[in-house]
Design a protein that fits this description.
By secondary structure, the chain is α/β, with parallel strands linked by helices. It is 28% helix and 25% strand. The protein is globular.
Length: 417
């Protein structure tokens, strides 16, 4: 089933009776070549690229709940490629290029909107850091522009440029960045993977990983044992729990990150805006709701909900930076479980167990990384070699101290990333 304007018109005129389910709901087979643990954006993207690029179709994605019910549907939908450090920079550049052709590739409307992202700065030190970042982004081959106060006043007149505590001095603009609809991305990859023959198994929790003589043999699930030649872990905030089934202790802490949506408003914010003080990020959805968030809750938790002090902090910051929204009502909020690594950068690597692969540690970058994460993880699983865009995401860098990528320069404290 392919989408097209003609098909939509024909279905509209005939009562929409010709649509079919987007993917099958198969029973799990007893044996697969590859089993992927986690049916979020990264797991589904990995399955899609394994089937499309490498012809590996005897693949199963195991999800303990429903597809897209985890972090991929619990974020603020931001897509960007304005990273500074080598290793991160080329990876997110690769991801943005995949984003730009994603809807055509999947034949699915992911509501990709390249509205641009504007990172504001408030003092001389932040200005210098933003200029360095902008130069690194341009050197990588992506776009970046430094804007002054008058340019900001014209581009975003709703900003409180003369805030007493945090006056806005300027910003870094990346026009190719933007947003995409989070759950639509999961659905698009699920549909694409299914079309290539991948089995998507929902309500199938992995309860154990079978290992014999240092070689993975399969998994135990709530729907019975499944044998597999290779097992790939893509469980986001639950990565530590899944890895523990294989006797591994990961350098990961799980923290809660809250996101918020206001009531629908008339268009006011054209871009994604981030503030260096208060760590606020905000955009406006196609429905008119303001989508925004700020810091982690700063304590480890597996609860997909947040605490009220961080809600208060976030509301204070948004009113200080964008006073016009002070009387808007909050419609809903949610919490995502973040897998935070010591240097704030991800892990895509083989483990010491033959046939067992790891994808985790996405910190704040999980959603925007979805296409490249799936592409690079699929390459690693299929070839046993890291993708050229992800050579720095090694697990052993935390053991050796070599190759750490501390993007935010906050040291080896998970919660500060």
């Amino acid at each position: 089933m392919r989408f097209s304007g003609l098909r939509v018109l024909r279905e509209g005129l005939t009562g929409n009776k010709g649509w079919k389910p987007h993917w099958r709901d198969p029973e799990p087979k007893s044996d697969y070549d590859i089993v992927i643990i986690g049916g979020g954006g990264h797991g589904l993207a990995t399955a899609y690229y394994l089937a499309k690029r490498y012809g590996m179709k005897n693949v199963a994605v195991l999800e303990k709940g429903y597809l897209g019910g985890g972090n991929v549907g619990r974020n603020t939908t931001i897509v960007r490629a304005n990273y500074y450090l080598p290793g991160n920079s080329e990876f997110y550049s690769h991801s943005l290029k995949l984003w730009e052709g994603l809807e055509q590739d999947l034949n699915y409307n992911a509501m990709m909107s390249q509205r641009g992202i504007l990172n504001l700065f408030h003092n001389d030190g932040q200005r210098d850091a933003v200029i360095r970042r902008g130069n690194a982004v341009v050197n990588q081959g992506d776009d970046a522009e430094i804007l002054g106060r008058e340019q900001l006043r014209e581009l975003a007149p709703f900003l409180n440029l003369d805030n007493n505590r945090f006056p806005i001095m300027g910003g870094l603009l990346q026009r190719r960045a933007g947003t995409a609809r989070h759950d639509a991305v999961a659905w698009g990859y699920a549909r694409g993977a299914d079309r290539h023959g991948v089995d998507l198994i929902q309500n199938c929790e992995v309860t154990g990983i079978d290992i014999e003589a240092g070689v993975v043999k399969g998994v135990q699930t709530t729907r019975g044992p499944i044998r597999a030649k290779k097992v790939a872990m893509a469980a986001a905030g639950r990565s530590s729990q899944v890895a523990a089934m294989a006797g591994m202790r990961l350098p990961i802490e799980s923290h809660v990150l809250q996101a918020f949506v206001s009531e629908g408003l008339k268009p006011i914010i054209d871009h994604v805006i981030t503030f260096a003080e208060g760590h606020l990020y905000i955009s406006q959805s196609d429905k008119g709701g303001l989508v925004f968030g700020s810091y982690l809750d700063f304590y480890s938790s597996y609860a997909a909900r947040g605490n009220l002090p961080m809600v208060e902090h976030t509301m204070e910051t948004i009113v200080a930076m964008v006073p016009a929204v002070a009387k808007a009502r909050l419609l809903r909020s949610w919490g995502g479980i973040m897998d935070m690594s010591p240097d704030g950068s991800p892990i895509i690597d083989r483990t010491h167990i033959e046939g067992l692969y790891l994808n985790c540690g996405w910190n704040y970058g999980g959603f925007k990384a979805t296409p490249a994460s799936g592409d690079c993880f699929a390459h690693l699983i299929a070839t046993d070699r890291p993708h050229e865009a992800a050579t720095g995401f090694r697990l052993d860098r935390f053991e050796t101290g070599y190759g750490l990528m501390d993007e935010e320069a906050t040291g080896a404290q998970h919660n500060l990333h």
